[in-house]
Design brief:
Mean pLDDT: 78
Shape: globular
Number of strands: 15
Number of helices: 2
Largest sheet: 5 strands, antiparallel
Structural class: mainly beta
Strand content: 35-45%
Length: about 230
Amino acid sequence: MKLNLIFMFIIPGCILPAYVQSSVGLPDKPTIENIQFDIVYDYDHEYPQPKYSLFSFDVTYHNTERIYLYTNCSKQYHVSEDPTFFDTILENKETDNSESGIIHFDVPDTDWGECFAVRCYNKYGGIWSDTLNTTNYITDIDLLNYINDYWDKQTGLDDIEQDSDVITFENGNIVCSPAIQSLSIHSLHGIAIKQFIRPEIIATDDIPKGLYIITYTTNSQNFKSIKYLRP
């Protein structure tokens, strides 16, 4: 039997054909950007509720055939650092290009304290994104105060310990005390620009000068919002 042997030599710096370059394995971890939470609350009832709300974001994916959007049925009063259990699929979308791309999600009728995550799938399996909690993207101070009062009543605490001087500004940086559990920087339009878990010193060199809103969660489960002028 005669064998025809074919040898292929890979030259450094040479670009291989697409069929040789094709990625194999699980999808890359999806990243979520351009997060925005538009919410208008109605306080004229015994149990206040949103008049209007829309939670939206973009998902950047790689090596993915289909993306699933998950939520859970329980409201989270604060943002946990532990993974959240997701039991409900809200939506799934097939990607136009399995190699890489961006898909936009709109979630209407969303309230504070709701958690979401996406899971990217291909034939090898799936990979989770980070967890999103809608409370992290609220910039309305009145609503944040309402959430704090609600949390106070649910826990039976008459006075939630107030964390003082948890944020200071030094040399253009945002310095956070250990009392801060999570922090987000938003544009005045409510778009999340940066998010942090257990931040210490946040450099702002890459943020354009202007007015921003900082929202943060403390260890005592308070949600707070302050204005920040980037000099």
